[in-house]
Design brief:
The protein has 173 residues and is of the alpha/beta class. Helix content is 29%, strand content 24%.
């Protein structure tokens, strides 16, 4: 039987818009600094710990993962991939298809609309209302979890089951 694979799709947390800062260099805003660790706590509580992380090179994506990873017991290796910045669903899928054969759970940290479109592209079936929620909005720091059997290179449109969709939020004190 083919191995069970899991793709965890994480949209970067809320960014700031400082004047004069290029889009790629935008940092996380106050809300993002609260929500990124909450995303890490959710990953840990949901037992969605990745074996490998593919992360956009944009500052807000890197900061999101750094803060989320700090909430995990033993953070996995990270590959910062410039192709993920402002990528569409097809480009994101191409990067995911390069996942090593020994990786069971891969986490992708990226940007909208690409991460939402990728999730919708891959979902053939979904549990509960997760697909409706993804279709209506994929907020900052949101996490989609997709599973299927097979290799990373064979991942195709409609092949995955969307098992969860969460929007972790940090303490608003």
């Amino acid at each position: 039987m083919s191995p069970l694979r899991r793709l965890v799709v994480l949209r970067h947390a809320k960014s700031a818009w400082p004047e004069g800062v290029a889009d790629h260099a935008r940092p996380l805003g106050r809300r993002g600094l609260r929500d990124a660790p909450a995303a890490g706590r959710w990953l840990s509580a949901a037992d969605c710990l990745p074996d490998l992380v593919l992360c956009s090179t944009a500052r807000r994506a890197r900061e999101t993962w750094e803060l989320a990873a700090a909430e995990l017991g033993s953070p996995p290796p990270v590959r910062h991939d410039p192709r993920l910045y402002a990528a569409d669903a097809r480009a994101l899928l191409a990067a995911v298809r390069e996942g090593p054969a020994d990786i069971e759970t891969l986490l992708l940290v990226g940007h909208n609309p690409g991460v939402q479109d990728l999730t919708l592209l891959l979902t053939g079936e979904a549990l509960g209302e997760s697909l409706d929620r993804v279709g209506s909005k994929f907020p900052t720091a949101a996490i989609a979890v997709l599973t299927w059997r097979g290799s990373w290179s064979d991942l195709a449109s409609g092949a995955a089951l969307l098992t969860d969709f969460a929007v972790p939020r940090g303490d608003r004190r």
